[in-house]
């Protein structure tokens, strides 16, 4: 009789355990999907910001280039044209970020770093653990207690 009862409990336990594991897996998948969706939205905002900035900076660059060129011709000083060079680099970067392949190149470089240069990604003092967090929390509580006693 005890064996039948124990067998029934084991079946219920295994069924409940399987149910819990299924729910945990589903919850983890949802969290991963949500994190990816947030990452995609942040990247889309970054690209949109770059495109918007490019409109304003492009206008500024155009006006500055025309003005500097006119000033260089009028005063016969080619030194007026030098600011166009760094402004041109900024304009090119923003265009590449907003409409070019900069993000794909950055993604490729990031994948290369993750695969071949993993040591550059290590945190100082290693990975944070529950024990290290608890130790810091306890030290903070002790230091607060010492401050209130004085």
TrEMBL record:
GO terms for biological process: positive regulation of plasminogen activation. InterPro entries: Plg-R(KT). Pfam families: DUF2368 (PF10166). The chain crosses the membrane at residues 53-73, 79-97. Keywords: Membrane, Transmembrane, Transmembrane helix. The keyword DNA-binding does not apply. The keyword Transmembrane applies. It comes from the Eukaryota. One of its GO terms (cellular component) is plasma membrane. This is Plasminogen receptor with a C-terminal lysine.
């Amino acid at each position: 009789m005890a064996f039948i009862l124990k067998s029934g409990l084991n079946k219920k336990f295994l069924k409940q355990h399987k149910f819990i594991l299924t729910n945990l897996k589903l919850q983890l998948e949802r969290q991963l999907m949500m994190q990816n969706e947030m990452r995609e939205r942040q990247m889309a905002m970054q690209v949109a910001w770059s495109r918007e900035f490019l409109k304003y900076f492009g206008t500024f660059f155009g006006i500055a280039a025309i003005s500097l060129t006119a000033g260089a011709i009028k005063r016969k000083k080619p030194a007026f044209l030098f600011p166009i060079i760094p402004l041109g680099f900024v304009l090119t970067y923003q265009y590449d970020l907003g409409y070019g392949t900069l993000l794909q190149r950055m993604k490729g470089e990031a994948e290369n770093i993750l695969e071949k240069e993993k040591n550059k990604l290590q945190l100082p003092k290693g990975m944070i653990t529950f024990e290290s967090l608890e130790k810091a929390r306890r030290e903070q509580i002790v230091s607060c207690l010492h401050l209130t006693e004085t």
